[in-house]
Amino acid sequence: MPRPARTNTAEEILEVASRLVQTRGFNGFSYADVAVEIGTTPAALHYHFATKADLGLALVQRYVSGFRGALDEIRTSLPDGRTRLDAYRDLYLDVLARRRLCLCGMLAAEIATLTEPMRAGIVGFFDDNVAWLEQTIADGNADGSIRAKRGPRETAEAIVGGFEGAMLLAWSHDDPARFRRAADHLLALLTGDPGGK
Amino acid sequence: MPRPARTNTAEEILEVASRLVQTRGFNGFSYADVAVEIGTTPAALHYHFATKADLGLALVQRYVSGFRGALDEIRTSLPDGRTRLDAYRDLYLDVLARRRLCLCGMLAAEIATLTEPMRAGIVGFFDDNVAWLEQTIADGNADGSIRAKRGPRETAEAIVGGFEGAMLLAWSHDDPARFRRAADHLLALLTGDPGGK
DNA sequence: GTCTATAACGAGATAGAC
DNA sequence: GTCTATCTCGTTATAGAC
User: Fold this and answer.
1) In this model, does residue A2 exceed pLDDT 80?
2) Strand C: which of residues 125-154 in chain A lie with Cβ below 7 A?
3) Which CATH superfamily groups domain B52-191?
4) Whole-prediction pTM
5) Rounded to an integer, what distance in angstroms lies between the CA atom of residue A188 and that of residue A171?
6) Which end of chain A is more exposed for a tag (fewer CB within 10 A), N or C?
Protein backbone atom coordinates (compact mmCIF):
# COMPACT_ATOMS: atom_id res chain seq x y z
CA MET A 1 0.00 0.00 0.00
CA PRO A 2 2.28 2.77 -1.27
CA ARG A 3 -0.29 5.45 -0.66
CA PRO A 4 -3.30 5.73 1.62
CA ALA A 5 -6.62 5.05 -0.09
CA ARG A 6 -8.04 8.21 -1.55
CA THR A 7 -11.79 8.20 -1.46
CA ASN A 8 -12.40 11.75 -2.53
CA THR A 9 -9.50 13.17 -4.49
CA ALA A 10 -11.42 16.17 -5.79
CA GLU A 11 -12.25 17.32 -2.27
CA GLU A 12 -8.63 16.78 -1.20
CA ILE A 13 -7.46 18.95 -4.09
CA LEU A 14 -10.00 21.64 -3.23
CA GLU A 15 -8.95 21.74 0.42
CA VAL A 16 -5.26 22.16 -0.39
CA ALA A 17 -5.88 24.58 -3.24
CA SER A 18 -8.21 26.67 -1.08
CA ARG A 19 -5.53 27.12 1.55
CA LEU A 20 -2.99 28.06 -1.12
CA VAL A 21 -5.31 30.63 -2.70
CA GLN A 22 -6.23 32.06 0.70
CA THR A 23 -2.57 32.52 1.63
CA ARG A 24 -0.76 33.11 -1.65
CA GLY A 25 -3.41 34.23 -4.14
CA PHE A 26 -4.70 32.56 -7.30
CA ASN A 27 -1.61 33.62 -9.28
CA GLY A 28 0.69 32.65 -6.42
CA PHE A 29 0.33 28.87 -6.54
CA SER A 30 0.60 26.14 -9.19
CA TYR A 31 -0.76 22.66 -9.83
CA ALA A 32 2.66 21.41 -8.75
CA ASP A 33 2.18 22.98 -5.30
CA VAL A 34 -1.11 21.13 -4.85
CA ALA A 35 0.26 17.89 -6.32
CA VAL A 36 3.22 17.66 -3.98
CA GLU A 37 0.97 18.09 -0.95
CA ILE A 38 -1.47 15.34 -1.83
CA GLY A 39 1.19 13.06 -3.26
CA THR A 40 0.39 13.02 -6.95
CA THR A 41 1.55 14.74 -10.14
CA PRO A 42 0.48 18.07 -11.65
CA ALA A 43 -0.83 16.29 -14.72
CA ALA A 44 -3.05 14.01 -12.65
CA LEU A 45 -4.85 17.02 -11.26
CA HIS A 46 -6.03 17.94 -14.75
CA TYR A 47 -8.31 14.91 -14.73
CA HIS A 48 -10.22 16.31 -11.75
CA PHE A 49 -10.08 19.96 -12.83
CA ALA A 50 -9.33 20.32 -16.52
CA THR A 51 -8.03 23.88 -16.29
CA LYS A 52 -6.85 26.11 -13.49
CA ALA A 53 -9.85 28.35 -14.14
CA ASP A 54 -12.13 25.35 -13.58
CA LEU A 55 -10.40 24.67 -10.28
CA GLY A 56 -10.73 28.34 -9.36
CA LEU A 57 -14.44 28.40 -10.09
CA ALA A 58 -14.96 25.25 -8.01
CA LEU A 59 -13.07 26.93 -5.15
CA VAL A 60 -15.28 30.01 -5.31
CA GLN A 61 -18.48 27.95 -5.43
CA ARG A 62 -17.33 25.80 -2.53
CA TYR A 63 -16.42 28.84 -0.44
CA VAL A 64 -19.61 30.73 -1.24
CA SER A 65 -21.67 27.67 -0.44
CA GLY A 66 -19.87 27.08 2.86
CA PHE A 67 -20.27 30.69 3.90
CA ARG A 68 -23.94 30.64 2.92
CA GLY A 69 -24.43 27.61 5.15
CA ALA A 70 -22.78 29.39 8.07
CA LEU A 71 -25.00 32.44 7.56
CA ASP A 72 -28.14 30.28 7.52
CA GLU A 73 -26.97 28.54 10.68
CA ILE A 74 -26.45 31.89 12.42
CA ARG A 75 -29.89 33.09 11.44
CA THR A 76 -31.69 29.97 12.64
CA SER A 77 -29.74 29.54 15.88
CA LEU A 78 -29.33 33.08 17.24
CA PRO A 79 -32.23 35.18 18.50
CA ASP A 80 -31.45 38.82 17.80
CA GLY A 81 -29.74 41.01 15.22
CA ARG A 82 -26.88 42.21 17.37
CA THR A 83 -25.87 38.72 18.48
CA ARG A 84 -25.94 37.57 14.87
CA LEU A 85 -23.56 40.35 13.89
CA ASP A 86 -21.08 39.16 16.51
CA ALA A 87 -21.36 35.66 15.06
CA TYR A 88 -20.78 37.13 11.60
CA ARG A 89 -17.62 38.78 12.93
CA ASP A 90 -16.55 35.40 14.32
CA LEU A 91 -16.74 33.85 10.84
CA TYR A 92 -14.02 36.25 9.72
CA LEU A 93 -12.06 35.72 12.90
CA ASP A 94 -12.11 31.96 12.33
CA VAL A 95 -10.58 32.39 8.88
CA LEU A 96 -7.80 34.55 10.33
CA ALA A 97 -7.25 32.10 13.19
CA ARG A 98 -6.48 29.48 10.54
CA ARG A 99 -3.93 31.96 9.17
CA ARG A 100 -5.85 32.58 5.98
CA LEU A 101 -7.46 35.49 4.20
CA CYS A 102 -11.06 35.45 2.96
CA LEU A 103 -10.94 33.52 -0.33
CA CYS A 104 -13.15 36.04 -2.09
CA GLY A 105 -11.31 39.01 -0.61
CA MET A 106 -8.04 37.64 -1.97
CA LEU A 107 -9.59 36.92 -5.37
CA ALA A 108 -11.26 40.34 -5.45
CA ALA A 109 -7.82 41.95 -5.60
CA GLU A 110 -6.80 39.69 -8.49
CA ILE A 111 -10.17 39.94 -10.23
CA ALA A 112 -8.74 41.52 -13.41
CA THR A 113 -6.79 38.31 -14.09
CA LEU A 114 -9.71 35.90 -13.58
CA THR A 115 -12.32 34.37 -15.88
CA GLU A 116 -15.82 35.77 -16.07
CA PRO A 117 -17.44 32.89 -14.15
CA MET A 118 -14.99 33.38 -11.28
CA ARG A 119 -15.64 37.13 -11.29
CA ALA A 120 -19.38 36.59 -11.12
CA GLY A 121 -18.96 34.22 -8.19
CA ILE A 122 -16.77 36.67 -6.27
CA VAL A 123 -19.08 39.64 -6.81
CA GLY A 124 -22.00 37.39 -5.91
CA PHE A 125 -20.33 36.47 -2.62
CA PHE A 126 -20.17 40.10 -1.54
CA ASP A 127 -23.70 40.82 -2.74
CA ASP A 128 -24.92 37.80 -0.80
CA ASN A 129 -23.13 38.97 2.34
CA VAL A 130 -24.58 42.47 1.99
CA ALA A 131 -28.09 41.07 1.51
CA TRP A 132 -27.78 38.86 4.60
CA LEU A 133 -26.45 41.73 6.70
CA GLU A 134 -29.13 44.07 5.41
CA GLN A 135 -31.82 41.68 6.60
CA THR A 136 -30.00 41.07 9.88
CA ILE A 137 -29.73 44.81 10.56
CA ALA A 138 -33.37 45.34 9.71
CA ASP A 139 -34.24 42.51 12.11
CA GLY A 140 -32.03 44.07 14.77
CA ASN A 141 -33.65 47.48 14.35
CA ALA A 142 -37.02 45.78 14.78
CA ASP A 143 -36.12 43.64 17.80
CA GLY A 144 -34.42 46.58 19.52
CA SER A 145 -30.93 45.03 19.67
CA ILE A 146 -29.62 47.52 17.09
CA ARG A 147 -30.10 51.23 16.43
CA ALA A 148 -28.40 51.63 13.06
CA LYS A 149 -27.33 55.20 12.34
CA ARG A 150 -28.08 54.86 8.64
CA GLY A 151 -30.12 52.58 6.41
CA PRO A 152 -29.65 48.78 6.59
CA ARG A 153 -28.22 48.63 3.09
CA GLU A 154 -25.61 51.32 3.65
CA THR A 155 -24.72 49.86 7.04
CA ALA A 156 -24.38 46.39 5.53
CA GLU A 157 -22.01 47.63 2.82
CA ALA A 158 -19.89 49.41 5.42
CA ILE A 159 -19.62 46.23 7.48
CA VAL A 160 -18.54 44.00 4.59
CA GLY A 161 -15.99 46.55 3.37
CA GLY A 162 -14.80 47.35 6.86
CA PHE A 163 -14.39 43.68 7.79
CA GLU A 164 -12.58 42.75 4.56
CA GLY A 165 -10.18 45.68 5.01
CA ALA A 166 -9.60 45.02 8.70
CA MET A 167 -8.92 41.40 7.77
CA LEU A 168 -6.39 42.43 5.13
CA LEU A 169 -4.56 44.66 7.60
CA ALA A 170 -4.60 42.04 10.34
CA TRP A 171 -3.38 39.47 7.79
CA SER A 172 -0.46 41.55 6.56
CA HIS A 173 0.52 42.42 10.13
CA ASP A 174 0.04 38.79 11.18
CA ASP A 175 -2.11 40.00 14.08
CA PRO A 176 -5.68 38.62 14.32
CA ALA A 177 -6.35 40.70 17.46
CA ARG A 178 -6.10 43.76 15.27
CA PHE A 179 -9.11 42.52 13.32
CA ARG A 180 -11.07 41.87 16.47
CA ARG A 181 -10.50 45.43 17.74
CA ALA A 182 -11.40 47.08 14.44
CA ALA A 183 -14.45 44.88 13.83
CA ASP A 184 -15.90 45.50 17.28
CA HIS A 185 -15.25 49.20 16.94
CA LEU A 186 -17.06 49.31 13.59
CA LEU A 187 -19.99 47.21 14.79
CA ALA A 188 -20.44 49.39 17.87
CA LEU A 189 -20.53 52.62 15.88
CA LEU A 190 -22.56 51.33 12.94
CA THR A 191 -25.22 49.73 15.10
CA GLY A 192 -25.52 52.56 17.63
CA ASP A 193 -24.02 50.53 20.46
CA PRO A 194 -23.45 52.96 23.37
CA GLY A 195 -20.58 50.86 24.75
CA GLY A 196 -18.01 52.87 22.81
CA LYS A 197 -17.40 55.97 24.90
CA MET B 1 14.88 57.61 -35.10
CA PRO B 2 13.27 54.19 -34.63
CA ARG B 3 12.22 54.98 -31.10
CA PRO B 4 11.63 58.19 -29.19
CA ALA B 5 14.52 59.28 -27.01
CA ARG B 6 14.23 57.72 -23.57
CA THR B 7 15.65 59.99 -20.92
CA ASN B 8 14.53 58.05 -17.89
CA THR B 9 13.92 54.41 -18.65
CA ALA B 10 13.81 53.34 -15.01
CA GLU B 11 10.95 55.73 -14.25
CA GLU B 12 9.12 54.59 -17.39
CA ILE B 13 9.42 51.00 -16.22
CA LEU B 14 8.21 51.91 -12.75
CA GLU B 15 5.16 53.75 -14.07
CA VAL B 16 4.03 50.85 -16.26
CA ALA B 17 4.87 48.22 -13.66
CA SER B 18 3.03 50.16 -10.97
CA ARG B 19 -0.15 50.21 -13.03
CA LEU B 20 0.18 46.49 -13.71
CA VAL B 21 0.68 45.65 -10.03
CA GLN B 22 -2.21 47.90 -9.01
CA THR B 23 -4.56 46.20 -11.46
CA ARG B 24 -3.29 42.61 -11.75
CA GLY B 25 -1.15 42.01 -8.66
CA PHE B 26 2.57 41.28 -8.32
CA ASN B 27 2.14 37.67 -9.44
CA GLY B 28 -0.20 38.70 -12.25
CA PHE B 29 2.26 40.46 -14.54
CA SER B 30 5.62 39.65 -16.14
CA TYR B 31 8.65 41.51 -17.43
CA ALA B 32 7.28 40.78 -20.91
CA ASP B 33 4.12 42.76 -20.11
CA VAL B 34 6.18 45.79 -19.12
CA ALA B 35 8.61 45.39 -22.03
CA VAL B 36 5.93 45.35 -24.72
CA GLU B 37 4.40 48.57 -23.37
CA ILE B 38 7.61 50.58 -23.35
CA GLY B 39 8.94 49.00 -26.54
CA THR B 40 11.88 46.94 -25.33
CA THR B 41 12.65 43.34 -24.40
CA PRO B 42 12.17 41.51 -21.11
CA ALA B 43 15.89 40.95 -20.85
CA ALA B 44 16.66 44.66 -21.22
CA LEU B 45 14.60 45.38 -18.12
CA HIS B 46 16.99 43.30 -16.05
CA TYR B 47 19.67 45.94 -16.50
CA HIS B 48 17.47 48.49 -14.70
CA PHE B 49 16.02 46.10 -12.13
CA ALA B 50 18.11 42.97 -11.75
CA THR B 51 15.33 40.82 -10.29
CA LYS B 52 11.57 41.11 -10.10
CA ALA B 53 11.90 41.47 -6.33
CA ASP B 54 14.17 44.49 -6.87
CA LEU B 55 11.56 46.02 -9.15
CA GLY B 56 8.88 45.27 -6.56
CA LEU B 57 10.81 46.92 -3.77
CA ALA B 58 11.39 50.02 -5.92
CA LEU B 59 7.63 50.14 -6.62
CA VAL B 60 6.79 50.00 -2.92
CA GLN B 61 9.34 52.69 -2.04
CA ARG B 62 8.10 54.93 -4.84
CA TYR B 63 4.47 54.50 -3.80
CA VAL B 64 5.17 55.02 -0.10
CA SER B 65 7.22 58.11 -0.86
CA GLY B 66 4.52 59.55 -3.14
CA PHE B 67 1.81 58.94 -0.58
CA ARG B 68 3.95 60.45 2.16
CA GLY B 69 4.36 63.59 0.04
CA ALA B 70 0.60 63.84 -0.44
CA LEU B 71 0.02 63.48 3.31
CA ASP B 72 2.54 66.24 4.06
CA GLU B 73 0.88 68.46 1.48
CA ILE B 74 -2.53 67.90 3.08
CA ARG B 75 -1.21 68.76 6.51
CA THR B 76 0.47 71.99 5.44
CA SER B 77 -2.32 73.23 3.17
CA LEU B 78 -5.52 72.40 5.07
CA PRO B 79 -6.53 74.05 8.32
CA ASP B 80 -8.47 71.53 10.40
CA GLY B 81 -8.60 67.80 11.14
CA ARG B 82 -11.96 67.06 9.54
CA THR B 83 -11.06 68.76 6.25
CA ARG B 84 -7.81 66.82 6.17
CA LEU B 85 -9.70 63.53 6.55
CA ASP B 86 -11.80 64.40 3.51
CA ALA B 87 -8.59 65.08 1.59
CA TYR B 88 -7.25 61.73 2.80
CA ARG B 89 -10.40 60.07 1.45
CA ASP B 90 -9.80 61.83 -1.86
CA LEU B 91 -6.35 60.24 -2.15
CA TYR B 92 -8.02 56.84 -2.24
CA LEU B 93 -10.73 58.10 -4.56
CA ASP B 94 -8.07 59.37 -7.00
CA VAL B 95 -6.49 55.91 -7.17
CA LEU B 96 -9.87 54.33 -7.93
CA ALA B 97 -10.65 57.03 -10.49
CA ARG B 98 -7.53 55.91 -12.34
CA ARG B 99 -9.01 52.40 -12.23
CA ARG B 100 -6.37 51.06 -9.87
CA LEU B 101 -6.21 49.51 -6.43
CA CYS B 102 -3.91 50.82 -3.67
CA LEU B 103 -0.49 49.34 -4.49
CA CYS B 104 0.13 48.35 -0.88
CA GLY B 105 -3.39 47.01 -0.44
CA MET B 106 -2.88 44.74 -3.43
CA LEU B 107 0.54 43.62 -2.21
CA ALA B 108 -0.76 43.08 1.32
CA ALA B 109 -2.96 40.27 -0.01
CA GLU B 110 0.03 38.66 -1.75
CA ILE B 111 2.43 39.34 1.12
CA ALA B 112 3.19 35.65 1.76
CA THR B 113 4.80 35.41 -1.69
CA LEU B 114 6.99 38.53 -1.38
CA THR B 115 10.55 39.15 -0.16
CA GLU B 116 11.21 40.47 3.33
CA PRO B 117 12.21 44.00 2.16
CA MET B 118 8.93 44.30 0.25
CA ARG B 119 6.97 43.05 3.26
CA ALA B 120 8.61 45.61 5.51
CA GLY B 121 7.78 48.39 3.07
CA ILE B 122 4.13 47.34 2.85
CA VAL B 123 3.65 47.06 6.61
CA GLY B 124 5.49 50.37 6.99
CA PHE B 125 3.04 52.02 4.58
CA PHE B 126 0.08 51.10 6.75
CA ASP B 127 1.87 52.06 9.96
CA ASP B 128 2.76 55.42 8.42
CA ASN B 129 -0.86 55.99 7.39
CA VAL B 130 -2.11 55.09 10.86
CA ALA B 131 0.42 57.45 12.48
CA TRP B 132 -0.58 60.34 10.20
CA LEU B 133 -4.29 59.73 10.83
CA GLU B 134 -3.71 59.42 14.56
CA GLN B 135 -2.11 62.86 14.62
CA THR B 136 -4.77 64.29 12.32
CA ILE B 137 -7.56 62.98 14.56
CA ALA B 138 -5.85 64.33 17.66
CA ASP B 139 -5.55 67.70 15.91
CA GLY B 140 -9.22 67.53 14.92
CA ASN B 141 -10.30 66.73 18.47
CA ALA B 142 -8.28 69.76 19.63
CA ASP B 143 -9.51 72.21 16.97
CA GLY B 144 -13.13 71.12 17.46
CA SER B 145 -13.69 69.82 13.93
CA ILE B 146 -13.83 66.20 15.17
CA ARG B 147 -15.36 64.42 18.14
CA ALA B 148 -13.86 60.97 17.83
CA LYS B 149 -15.88 58.30 19.64
CA ARG B 150 -12.76 56.39 20.61
CA GLY B 151 -9.02 57.02 20.90
CA PRO B 152 -7.13 58.52 17.94
CA ARG B 153 -5.11 55.35 17.46
CA GLU B 154 -8.10 53.03 17.34
CA THR B 155 -9.98 55.45 15.11
CA ALA B 156 -7.00 55.71 12.77
CA GLU B 157 -6.73 51.93 12.44
CA ALA B 158 -10.44 51.67 11.68
CA ILE B 159 -10.14 54.31 8.93
CA VAL B 160 -7.19 52.66 7.16
CA GLY B 161 -8.81 49.23 7.32
CA GLY B 162 -12.22 50.57 6.40
CA PHE B 163 -10.89 52.54 3.44
CA GLU B 164 -8.77 49.67 2.10
CA GLY B 165 -11.72 47.30 2.32
CA ALA B 166 -14.17 49.77 0.81
CA MET B 167 -11.65 50.27 -1.98
CA LEU B 168 -11.38 46.54 -2.59
CA LEU B 169 -15.15 46.19 -2.81
CA ALA B 170 -15.53 49.22 -5.06
CA TRP B 171 -12.68 47.86 -7.21
CA SER B 172 -14.17 44.40 -7.64
CA HIS B 173 -17.60 45.90 -8.38
CA ASP B 174 -16.03 48.46 -10.72
CA ASP B 175 -17.97 51.20 -8.90
CA PRO B 176 -15.92 54.06 -7.36
CA ALA B 177 -19.10 55.69 -6.04
CA ARG B 178 -19.46 52.73 -3.72
CA PHE B 179 -16.17 53.70 -2.09
CA ARG B 180 -17.26 57.29 -1.71
CA ARG B 181 -20.47 56.29 0.08
CA ALA B 182 -18.76 53.86 2.44
CA ALA B 183 -15.85 56.19 3.20
CA ASP B 184 -18.10 59.13 4.04
CA HIS B 185 -20.29 56.90 6.16
CA LEU B 186 -17.28 55.65 8.12
CA LEU B 187 -15.76 59.09 8.55
CA ALA B 188 -19.04 60.50 9.79
CA LEU B 189 -19.51 57.81 12.43
CA LEU B 190 -15.88 57.56 13.52
CA THR B 191 -15.42 61.30 13.91
CA GLY B 192 -18.76 62.00 15.58
CA ASP B 193 -20.17 63.89 12.62
CA PRO B 194 -23.88 64.49 13.36
CA GLY B 195 -24.76 64.74 9.67
CA GLY B 196 -25.51 61.03 9.47
CA LYS B 197 -29.05 60.70 10.76
C1' DG C 1 26.42 51.84 -19.39
C1' DT C 2 22.87 49.60 -22.08
C1' DC C 3 20.82 46.06 -24.55
C1' DT C 4 20.76 41.28 -27.47
C1' DA C 5 20.97 36.47 -27.60
C1' DT C 6 20.09 32.70 -25.13
C1' DA C 7 19.71 29.74 -21.33
C1' DA C 8 17.29 27.23 -17.57
C1' DC C 9 13.32 26.48 -15.44
C1' DG C 10 8.43 26.11 -14.25
C1' DA C 11 3.82 26.79 -15.83
C1' DG C 12 -0.61 24.87 -17.59
C1' DA C 13 -2.20 21.53 -20.64
C1' DT C 14 -2.67 17.07 -23.88
C1' DA C 15 -2.58 12.32 -25.47
C1' DG C 16 -2.81 8.08 -24.64
C1' DA C 17 -1.64 4.00 -21.40
C1' DC C 18 -3.80 1.19 -18.01
C1' DG D 1 -12.38 6.44 -14.91
C1' DT D 2 -7.73 7.64 -13.42
C1' DC D 3 -3.06 8.63 -13.96
C1' DT D 4 1.84 8.70 -16.64
C1' DA D 5 4.65 10.46 -20.09
C1' DT D 6 5.30 14.28 -22.61
C1' DC D 7 4.78 18.84 -24.81
C1' DT D 8 4.75 23.71 -25.53
C1' DC D 9 5.10 28.06 -23.98
C1' DG D 10 5.95 31.84 -20.79
C1' DT D 11 8.90 33.36 -17.09
C1' DT D 12 12.94 35.01 -14.82
C1' DA D 13 17.61 35.37 -15.29
C1' DT D 14 22.60 35.32 -17.23
C1' DA D 15 26.50 36.10 -20.35
C1' DG D 16 28.47 38.71 -23.21
C1' DA D 17 28.15 42.00 -27.43
C1' DC D 18 28.19 46.82 -28.51
Assistant:
1) no
2) none
3) Tetracycline Repressor, domain 2 (1.10.357.10)
4) 0.95
5) 22
6) N
Of the candidates A160, A154, A161, the residue with the CA atom closest to the CA atom of residue A138: A154
Q: What distance in Å separates residue B136's CA from the closest CA in chain A? A: 19
Query: For chain B, which residues score pLDDT lower than 50?
Result: 1-3, 196-197
Kindly report the nearest CA distance between residue A53 and chain B, in angstroms: 14
Chain A residues with CB under 8 Å of B25 CB are 25, 27, 109-110, 113
C-alpha B118/C-alpha A30 separation (Å) is 22
Residues written for chain A: 197
The answer to whether the CB atoms of B160 and A163 lie below 8 A apart is no
pLDDT digits (tens, 9 = 90+) for B71-91: 999 999 999 999 999 999 999
Residue nearest to nucleotide D11 (CA to C1'): B30
User: Is the pLDDT assigned to residue A190 strictly greater than 50?
Assistant: yes
Q: Is A114 exposed, middle or buried (0-12, 13-18, 19+ CB in 10 A)?
A: buried
A47 touches strand D (CB under 7 A): yes
Domain ranges of chain A: 52-191
- Whether the CB of B32 is below 8 Å from some CB of chain A: the reply is no
